[in-house]
Amino acid sequence: MFIIKYKKIFIGISTILVALSLFSLFVFGLNIGIDFKGGALTEVVYKVSRPAQIDLNKSLEALNLGAILLQPIGELGYIVKTRDLNDSEHALLLKTLSQDDKNSLTEMSFNSIGPSVGRELTRKAILAIILISVAIICFIAFAFRKVSHLSAMGNHGVASWKYGIIAIVSLLHDVIIPVGLFVILSHYFGAEADTLFVVAILTILGLSVSDTIVIFDRIRENLRNQANVNKINFSETVGKSLEQSFVRSICTSLTVILVLLALFFFGPVSTRYFALMLTAGMFFGTYSSIFLASPLLVLVQERQKKK
């Protein structure tokens, strides 16, 4: 199959995309939301009409309350994200938002999140990602243990734990590129990494690894069917497995992407970046399962064969 034939090109494309994403992350940094660094979240709804966002931004900048993020919500509301506010600053914020007419809006909620809560959320988010990665390696190593048996029989296979490592490499690819995209959105459009950002990463991990496992499972079945053959051409077996499964993977991913695009264009503003990040994760997750994980298997097998 042409994917295996030109595997170095596809691996090179993935490497370049990951490098560019990491570069943007180190240069621009990630815009951390109040969920992690602490701050105040105010939601207001106007009774008649919502003032223009550009006018409110000018008024809010004059308050000297630090960085303020104003996000439209619904047809008449705004969400305002600021540093932690005391009572007088909170009252001043509402006065500015109401444009000196107290009856023009209703405050729906005002929440304050301390830095300690943010640090705890950060710790739990990192721990969750690490535990999921370890669980994936262990699961794939166990599920593909018979592939290691084929390798030991001299059929030039790849050890089961290497399947797990390659799956994690693919997952890193699937997460890093959407994070790089989010960094660009943060730098130019003010997107903030909040709890939905973490949910998006964890969702990408789950969706992406399932697609990779499906293709790996097809490779395992084809290797098992040829277990009695003295010589197995590993690259041809992987190519055959891709031919049997890549249409299914693409069609499944497209259905999910269409739903996510509908959420992006027609859903609430608060979930727009979440939907966009998941869309990117699904796209690159499908790409990595077909054009990265399987070619990496062949590359690892060829190198260990030379030793």
TrEMBL record:
GO MF: protein-transporting ATPase activity
Membrane topology: Multi-pass membrane protein
Record's keyword annotation contains Ribosomal protein: no
Predominant subcellular localization, coarse grouping: membrane
Transmembrane segments: 9-34, 125-144, 165-189, 195-216, 246-267, 273-300
Subcellular location: Cell membrane
SUPFAM superfamilies on file: Multidrug efflux transporter AcrB transmembrane domain (SSF82866)
Gene Ontology cellular-component terms listed: plasma membrane
HAMAP family noted in UniProt: SecF_B
Similarity comment: family membership: Belongs to the SecD/SecF family. SecF subfamily.
NCBIfam families: transloc_SecF (TIGR00966)
Role noted for this protein: Part of the Sec protein translocase complex. Interacts with the SecYEG preprotein conducting channel. SecDF uses the proton motive force (PMF) to complete protein translocation after the ATP-dependent function of SecA.
Oligomer status and interactors: Forms a complex with SecD. Part of the essential Sec protein translocation apparatus which comprises SecA, SecYEG and auxiliary proteins SecDF. Other proteins may also be involved.
Protein name (Swiss-Prot/TrEMBL): Protein-export membrane protein SecF
